[in-house]
Amino acid sequence: MDALLTLGVTSCQQIIFIGSVGSLDDNIGIGDIVIPEYSVCGDGASRYISSDSLNNGDVFGEKIYSNIDLFNKSKTVTERICKEKT
Question: What distances in angstroms separate CA 67 from CA 23, 27, 73, 83, one per listed residue?
Fold first, then answer.
């Protein structure tokens, strides 16, 4: 999160972030690609990213949905790449 916030004061226009998370599903293996429909806020920094105030906008524990167009585009591109590689 610190790196992303730092990029906010640069001329950077696009980034690609590949995250790492654990799974609660035994069917998801190491190296599997997962594109979630939403995430649940559980870190400190993004709790307040939607507001300039530490008293307002705390989204800890809430579902945060991605932009549906970006979600669909990511899914389509990933499916295409996976089919090309198999």
Answer: 22, 26, 10, 24
What is the predicted pLDDT for the residue at 80?
A: 92
pTM score, two decimals?
Answer: 0.52
Summarised one tens digit per residue, pLDDT across range 28-83 is 888 788 888 888 877 777 666 666 666 666 778 888 888 899 889 988 998 998 89
**Cα→Cα distances 74→16, 28, 40, 71, Å:** 11, 19, 19, 5
Cα-only R_g, the chain: 16
Structure tokens at 32: 């599997």
- Tell me the two tokens of residue 85: 């590689």
* Domain enclosing residue 76, as ranges: 1-6+37-86
Q: Is residue 65 part of a domain?
A: yes
Phi and psi (nearest 5°) for 57? 85, 10
The DSSP symbol for 45 reads G
